[in-house]
């Protein structure tokens, strides 16, 4: 089963300096039919004006992933991390017992476009932590976040794996699923291009919830495709 979430149907917020589109209920956007999937609670598609950003604020008991599509994030947190996150890199902040941070557009001339993702942890009150990495795209589906941090991936405190999917126009890759794997949830967030998933077409900004599929065919039908693919527990 494939349930499509069209880009234009997402929640909208416009604060002038920030334009945000919410896949799931967030802040003043509330839709009881879109509260998250499994442990995946937030996907915010954020565009931040030059020089603007989020002042220091706190988080607790949440795994927060940022992926920069264009521009650069300037990050500073209460554990002394002062980092820049350029386009193509992933950041994973485990809020745990509590962390304060700020994130700004590092440029005074160019806009910032990034995805902010929240995943509920499977254990509360862990020590806060910070991870950041650029990943080579060694295959069409490259794991970037895993529960145990295997093969140099970022480690998330949850039974969840995040892949980056990159396909050239006309290219296809198949994700085979065992019966146990097919009982899990897949969520796809398309960043660019046009993507066919088992006959369902996604365009830029669209998402899709996939369940009970023994095999998933990803085909780039127009332009280069970049997407994030979440593999999520059926029980979280």
From TrEMBL:
Its cofactor is Fe cation. Binds 1 Fe cation per subunit. GO terms for molecular function: metal ion binding. InterPro entries: Pirin, Pirin_N_dom, Quercetinase_C, RmlC-like_jellyroll, RmlC_Cupin_sf. Fe cation binds at residues 57, 59, 101, 103. Keywords: Iron, Metal-binding. Residues 144-232 form the Quercetin 2,3-dioxygenase C-terminal cupin domain. Residues 8-119 form the Pirin N-terminal domain. It comes from the Bacteria. Pfam families: Pirin, Pirin_C_2. Belongs to the pirin family. This is Pirin family protein. It comes from Shewanella septentrionalis.
């Amino acid at each position: 089963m494939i349930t499509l979430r069209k880009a234009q149907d997402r929640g909208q917020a416009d604060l002038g300096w920030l334009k945000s589109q919410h896949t799931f209920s967030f802040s003043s956007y509330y839709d009881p039919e879109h509260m998250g999937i499994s442990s995946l609670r937030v996907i915010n598609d954020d565009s931040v004006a030059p020089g603007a950003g989020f002042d220091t604020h706190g988080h607790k008991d949440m795994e927060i992933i940022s992926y920069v599509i264009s521009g650069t994030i300037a990050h500073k947190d209460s554990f002394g991390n002062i980092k820049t996150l350029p386009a193509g890199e992933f950041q994973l902040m485990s809020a745990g017992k509590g962390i304060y941070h700020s994130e700004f557009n590092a440029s005074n001339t160019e806009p910032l476009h990034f995805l902010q993702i929240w995943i509920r942890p499977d254990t509360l009150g862990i020590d806060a932590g910070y991870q950041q990495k650029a990943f080579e795209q060694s295959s069409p589906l490259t794991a970037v976040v895993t529960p145990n941090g295997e093969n140099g991936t970022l480690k998330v405190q949850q039974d969840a794996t995040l892949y980056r999917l990159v396909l050239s126009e006309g290219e296809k890759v198949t994700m085979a699923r065992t019966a146990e794997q097919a009982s899990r949830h897949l969520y796809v967030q398309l960043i660019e291009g046009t993507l066919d998933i088992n006959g369902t077409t996604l365009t830029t900004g669209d998402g899709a919830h996939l369940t009970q599929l023994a095999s998933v065919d990803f085909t780039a039908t127009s332009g280069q495709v970049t997407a994030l693919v979440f593999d999520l527990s059926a029980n979280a």
